[in-house]
Every structure is written in C-alpha cells, then in structure tokens.
Amino acid sequence: MSGPMTVTVVGAGLAGCEAAWQLAQRGIDVTLVEMKPDKRTSAHVSDSFCELVCSNSLRSDELTNAVGLLKEEMRRLGSLVMRCADETRVPAGGALAVDRTGFAELVTAHIKAHPRIAVVSREQTAIPEGRAIIATGPLTSDALAGAIGGLIGDRFLSFFDAAAPIVTAESIDMTSAFTASRYDKGTADYINCPMSESEYKAFREALVTAEEAVLHGFEDKNVFEGCMPIEVMARRGEDTMRYGPLKPVGLRDPKTGKEPYAVVQLRRDNAAGTLYNLVGFQTHLKFPEQKRVFSMIPALRNAEFVRYGVMHRNTYLDSPALLDRYYRLRRLPRIGFAGQITGVEGYVESAASGLLAGIETARELLGQPPADFPAETAIGALALYVSGGSVGPFQPMNVNFGIIAPLDHKVRGKRNKNLAISERSLQIIGDMIGKNVGVSS
Questions:
Q1: For residue 123, which of 101, 139, 103 has the smallest C-alpha distance?
Q2: How do the domains of the chain map onto residue ranges?
C-alpha cells in the first residue's frame, strides 16, 4: 500500500497493532512492518503480534485505579487490544490478566484479517517515507535506533527491564500454599506461598548473594522502579520485599488463621491454569541461581520452571523535548511514535499511546480537527505528561491519578475521589464519541 492516505506503522506490538487498527477502522490504509518471524529481539519467543514478554497482567480493572480507568476509556473507543484482552482473560481477582498465547494469537488474527492493513515481514532499518508511526518498543533494533538517533540527534535514554519466571501448576506444593485474593477481593485466583520469618530471612540472604547474569552497563540506578528485579529490591533493605511483592497484608493463611510473615503470590499465566508466574519476581539472576534460590520458597521446593526470568534493555526517547501531545515529532510531524519508546510504561499505557496516535493521525489525514484528549482523561493526561508534563529528568511512568487534572470540588476519601475523577473522564469520553471521535468496533 502507498499513497497520501497510507500510514506506515513500524512494529506489531501493543502500540503498533492498536495504532494500525485505529487508522484502518477510520478508512486509512496501513502498511504494518514487523521484523518477526525473520528476526526477533532477545525477549521474544513467538511469531505472534502483541507478545507479552513480562507479566500476563494488565493490572487493576477497577475505576478507582488509574489504569482501570485507562482501560475503560480504551474499551469505549473501540480498542482492539482491550477487546482481545477481555476475550482471553484468566481469573486474577480485581485485575485483568490474560492467556498470553491466546491474546497474542487473537490480536494477530484480527490484524491480518483487516482489509486495510497490509503486513510486511521485514526489519525496518531506516526512517519510513511519508506518514509513519514508529512503535518498535523498548528493544528497537540497532539499525533503526541508529536511524532515529540520526534524525533526533541521539536524544535517547535507556534503562533495564525484567521478566518474571513461570512454573507449572502441578509442581507447586499446595500443602505449603493456599488460594486467595488479597482482602478476599473477587475470587481466590492467586496461589499464595507463605514464608515464616526464618524462611524469609534465609531467602533474602540467598537473593542478596546470588550470582547475577552479566549485563553490559547494568547498574541498579538504571532500573525502572515499577519493574525492579527482586534481587535489587532485596538489597535495599530487610523488609523492602515485605512492603512490596511479598507483602502479607490482606492474606490470611487458613492453616493458622493469621497473616504470614511474608507471602509470594503466583498468578495464573494461561487459560488452562497449568502455568503460574511469580508475581513481582522480575530478575536477572543466572538461571541455575534462580532455580536454587526460588526453590527455597517452601511451596516451590520442587517447582518446575518452564521459563526463567530475563533482563533486557529498554530504550526510550527524551519525549518532552521531542514530541507533541499527539506523539509526533515537533520538528517533523509526519513521523510519530507510540508505545514504550515514547516513555510510557506498561502494556495498557503502550496500547493507549498507539490508540491516540492512530486516532489523531487518521483525523488529520481525513481533514478533521484533532480530538485533543484533555488532561481530565487518562488517555489525554498520559500524552500531555509524556510531551512535557514531567519535572526534572524525564523517566518512564505508569498512568496515575496524579497526572490527571484534579476535580474542581472536594470529595471525601481517596477511593471516592478517584471514582469521581473516573466518572468525569468517562463522561468526557462519551461526549467525544458523540462528536464522532470513536468508531464502531
């Protein structure tokens, strides 16, 4: 496909697929360039689009949480990612988790079946001609990264990200575990692995002294706080993990009737319930060390690890200096970006940036005024933060209520206030849809 009403989207991850879908749904022809299956990054294992390389959770699905609001905004705007996530969800309490294989395959099928999307399997090594959205993610290939660097003057920042291990359900010792969701919220979807004080302290000591894989240029200060390796967290203090992923609050062991000293949670990773991932256990320990140390968790003493944790580089733009609220280069607006390369952090945030970039690019090509998602919406607030809302050095960040415009009146209680912000946002989204911003799914 080529012509003035054609957009090249580079990268078939969450952001790229969402951007391509939004464009195509609005009558714009799309050439979607994806280097798989000919070439993969170090973090990818399948040929499907939208492969989830870290957790299989899209986090909270509640409107009292900012990411829950972001997901609902996307649903109402005809998001392909949210449609496929809802259709492949697996039990996860108040969170939205998906069967990662089923999710990726479903997105791939929809993209390949769309009559306005032409998929081209090759590595993009240069800046595309004409209108383009670059959504190559945190592992942009060296060749394209070099081309982008030549275009923007090498204004890149980078940090390291990590993925958690996965174990088979049948290898979990359920005599040393119990099923529950925190505060008994929703259904009992998590397997909880309690640890006594002595077990926890021995485990932490093993983590602190375990041998790490060699990573060129890695330093703890480069780690994004929201995806910190468990061993880095262990080094920060004896109780750091107990206030993080191993917190026992809201989890009562039925054997004792009390909260354990620490709890490792396992979350279902596929629809069949045969695989579980260790929640919050991103790591860059050597594989044998992962087996040795994580087997110290009583319920995982005989665990079968089908995937070990891995560490990889994430690269992102100095977006406030480069991009506008539509994720386009200010000095060359025919080129847009979407996804983690812009500095949004998280699956949902990446897809949301692709959704906005696709909508706004389509509207411009169709001669329509920009949608201009306002700061009162999660989608708009995220774009405005990325394009200039940060103070000091720009760092990736998940969506949160702190970047959404506050209410003009007081509401008592944090949950009530967050819910009021969400209700206001969804009213605005509804009004925008009424003005033809959205399209039928």
A1: 139
A2: 6-160+313-434, 165-308
